[in-house]
Task: inverse folding
């Protein structure tokens, strides 16, 4: 492709709308253009990289036994009503009516429609395992679409669904897909980590997320370098610290003026924050709940929600607390609480002679014995794990990192085959429920995550496997006949070798061409200039390292071929 | 792929919902499944064939200089309001609102959104010609979705848009795309014809449709075997027959009891139907119009609509005519008509001493001289061309055929750059309007049309280039170890040669496997049976001709390779 013909337009300014690097660079380098909030046009450069990601995905899904289909985007409401999710999805689902007034939605996900297909088409145990997938747009009317392709309202996803006759089969399919996902992200040239994850609205018990490691990633994860444990902090199991046992002291009220935070309180009383207990009030499906964690810990709302098994969870408003209990926020504590469920983190029972809010302004209780001086209804792991804590599996210190979720896999069990009655006949003629799994990859998100992980101040640094082009040829002065001839010759030779190359034949300053090349991020750049004409050499520059080497014109083709094939093969292992 | 693992389910019965062959066969052979009216799931077999059609399209679009992008499916209303088509599209457009109450539609076509992109990104004449395309779902809420993939509400289309600086450039781009379309349909293995077409709601003056020839095609076309003229009958130019001039006779009313049709009238009066004139009343944008064609001709409503330049055209109701004129339908004629526009076909002025309805039950007027005895406001070509008539270009007799429109190309001129203000700066610094073209291919429709053209009583006959698999191997008895070994050996060898092969390893009767193979329509079938074990030969059957030949096992691989590569190359020319 010639730059003079290519539909590529780069921007010098950082667009105001873009907050994160990948979004900024995709706009600046001409990969995407916004059409409406969270809705984008993919320009030719993005389309080329997307096609490569999709090809890698297709190849790995097919190798794993997946069969590709295309499901409708526009889905009849009836199926969602049957599964019970028509209401659950709320405002995040795009809904519409056809000319006859029938209700439809734009698929935010496809469990319903594929379950319906399989219940109609499959009847015998012989047909399992069955792995079906598609690569297509999904629609979610996000409250706050942001970060470009990271959180759009129209986005490309690969979703695969596995169907098995029993839990064992499901687990086998899950492992096959887990392995296939590792291959996909390795081949895309990404540094990633698979972590245990919460299964959220999709459901099921076991789930993993595939996280591309990036400093500014939205997600936080912990991992153990000793054993292979890794988890999203949302999900990561905390190893409870047991403080040394103590004889009970005398519980009494202490005047603690201005001690409105744990830090101030510990300072004031000259104790460790570990000796304090924080009480937080939540509304869980309209019931008031008191959650307790040790003063130096942070509460994990997702764990709390899962422990309470509720659909809606939010911090209780001052008003809700006052209505129920009669007192204001601050200095709250569990002693004397009545009619409110108390859920405590696993560490709370081990805080002996604890300091706790006295439910009275500027007062705390000291020497409180949990379980004795106040009742605990439920003890669960409801706190956030911190860096350096013990790994729940091997007790080595945990590390923390940030990442971007690009894929997630779920063991759904019979969640959807129960609600949608997806059954089969087993070896003995018995009717049984099908076991499902589902497996998603955000295709556009993978591009964005790649950029978050691979960029510098000048622009994007594409891994060879998903770069829009492998090579850019930059003649310093294309109008110079001799330079042009060299450029054209190398261009044609690379094309004939099947290498994806862009020839920057534009009649503009060389500096602009270099800036564009760095911004767009082609892995290799061949520079043709006066030296080429005089000495018969060209400069080969690696985008990632800016490493530059001078090569004879007759060496350049084989050198480029070698680099590309070695970089592609490395990822293909 | 092994049939035992493949997600293929065939049906013995013809589904009641399917009226035409391609729809019936796609359902029976397990290519598609209905999800809602006009909305389908594409099963793995269809997906494989679709991918091949899309690959051919991509290759030809890229060769022609097209650059692939992905435009949003969900489009903001503002753009459609700006172009004036938000209202025009009416009930056929799926509309929806997001959570903030903003209006969107699901793109029925993409002129607006691409014009918006180009007006924002392109500013100089240097950037033309620019050819951008995508392959994606389109949405049209058809009043009566039918015929499976022929007329769906959600369907896959390739749409390319060309942008040029002037009319000459547009015509050049148009020709390039026209040629590329010929290559696409040839490579798909189709017998087709490009015909002049009406440009309908998309607009512009010059348009061609690509018609796959098929007996049951929805469209009718005429073509000339001498010159290359071919046109959709909707558009085909009529060569007016001039009847011999006559001296005017005496106009008078004649009693013609029961002569309610032209045939009966001609019989009754013992004249040629050519001597009669038919009058038809239409409501054109709420105005009553009287259209005249010779009695033996058929009126062409699309030509009439174009001649009248109206948006809505329909036969006038009895009531509307009575309200306006005061008399009932039947025996109507133009003599004495007042306040109604009269449009006559080009042949009407050449009917001397014509017979015309007298506007009186059971009476006609004879010896009427058009233009003298009644006024004509407009003379236009408004009739349907018949087989055997003279070609408008070379006057040889025209032939008629039926076809299915699989693609259409349009010269749009400045229609959209006018309404959406798409401009560029020319060589002299002047601001000018961009000239556009648009070019569509129905991808799913191409599959359906292929089946309409290529099938027999037993099922589909796929052209090699878009068959879901090239070869099926049918071991008569897969349980027989020796047969199985032969089958597996041939299967592995074909796979290693990169040939797409399905091994029917199912433990079912051979007759069922043969029936399925014929129904699905794999181009080649290799049969392995007792003879294979005894004599070392296999039968190779061509699906299209049912031709069968016996080959030694060691010959089969090279034979199959030869057939496939020769059939693919033929189409690739």
Result:
């Amino acid at each position: 492709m010639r730059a003079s013909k290519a539909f590529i337009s780069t921007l010098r300014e950082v667009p105001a709308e873009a907050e994160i690097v990948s979004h900024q660079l995709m706009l600046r380098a001409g990969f995407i253009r916004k059409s409406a909030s969270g809705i984008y046009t993919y320009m030719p450069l993005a389309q080329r990289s997307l096609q490569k990601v999709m090809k890698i995905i297709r190849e790995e899904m097919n190798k794993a036994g997946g069969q590709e289909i295309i499901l409708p985007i526009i889905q009849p409401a009836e199926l969602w009503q049957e599964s019970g999710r028509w209401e659950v999805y709320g405002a995040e689902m795009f809904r519409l009516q056809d000319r006859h007034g029938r209700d439809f939605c734009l698929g935010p996900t496809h469990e319903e429609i594929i379950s319906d297909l399989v219940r109609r088409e499959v009847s015998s145990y012989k047909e399992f395992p069955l792995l079906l997938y598609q690569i297509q747009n999904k629609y979610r009317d996000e409250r706050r679409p942001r970060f470009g392709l990271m959180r759009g309202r129209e986005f490309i996803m690969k979703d695969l669904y596995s169907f098995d006759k029993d839990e064992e089969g499901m687990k086998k399919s899950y492992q096959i897909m887990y392995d296939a996902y590792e291959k996909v992200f390795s081949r895309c040239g990404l540094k990633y980590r698979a972590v245990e994850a919460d299964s959220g609205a999709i459901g099921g018990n076991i789930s993993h997320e595939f996280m591309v490691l990036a400093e500014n990633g939205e997600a936080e994860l912990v991992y153990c370098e000793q054993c292979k444990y890794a988890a999203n902090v949302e999900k990561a199991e905390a190893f409870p610290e047991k403080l040394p046992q103590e004889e009970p002291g005398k519980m009494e009220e202490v005047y603690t003026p201005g001690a409105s935070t744990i830090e101030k309180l510990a300072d004031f009383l000259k104790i460790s924050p570990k000796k304090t207990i924080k009480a937080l009030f939540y509304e869980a499906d309209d019931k008031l709940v008191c959650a307790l964690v040790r003063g130096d810990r942070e509460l994990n709302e997702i764990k709390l929600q899962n422990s309470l098994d509720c659909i809606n969870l939010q911090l209780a408003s001052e008003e809700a607390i006052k209505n129920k209990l009669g007192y204001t926020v601050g200095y709250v504590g569990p002693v004397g609480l009545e009619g409110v469920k108390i859920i405590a983190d696993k560490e709370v029972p081990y805080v002996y002679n604890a300091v706790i809010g006295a439910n009275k302004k500027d007062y705390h209780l000291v020497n409180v014995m949990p379980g004795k001086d106040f009742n605990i209804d439920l003890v669960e792991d409801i706190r956030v794990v911190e860096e350096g804590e013990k790994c729940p599996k091997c007790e080595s210190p945990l590390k923390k990192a940030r990442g971007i979720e690009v894929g997630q896999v779920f063991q759904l069990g019979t969640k959807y085959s129960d609600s949608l009655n997806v059954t089969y006949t087993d070896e003995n003629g018995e009717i049984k429920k099908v076991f499902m799994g589902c497996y998603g990859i955000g295709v556009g998100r993978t591009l964005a995550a790649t950029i978050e992980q691979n960029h510098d101040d000048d622009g994007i640094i594409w891994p060879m496997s998903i770069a829009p082009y492998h090579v850019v040829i930059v003649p310093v002065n294309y109008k110079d006949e001799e330079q042009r001839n060299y450029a054209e010759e190398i261009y044609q030779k690379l094309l004939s070798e099947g290498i994806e190359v862009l020839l920057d034949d534009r009649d503009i300053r060389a500096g602009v061409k270099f800036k564009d090349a760095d911004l767009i991020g082609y892995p290799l750049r061949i520079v043709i200039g006066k030296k080429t004409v005089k000495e018969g050499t060209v400069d080969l520059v690696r985008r990632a390292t800016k490493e530059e080497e001078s090569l004879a014109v007759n060496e350049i083709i084989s050198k480029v071929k070698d680099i590309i094939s070695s970089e592609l093969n490395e990822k293909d292992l």
About this structure: Chain B touches chain A through 55 residues (CB under 8 Å). Chain B has three domains: 21-237+400-452, 252-380, 469-572. Residues 297 and 383 of chain B are 7 Å apart (CA to CA). DSSP finds 15 helices and 31 strands in chain B.
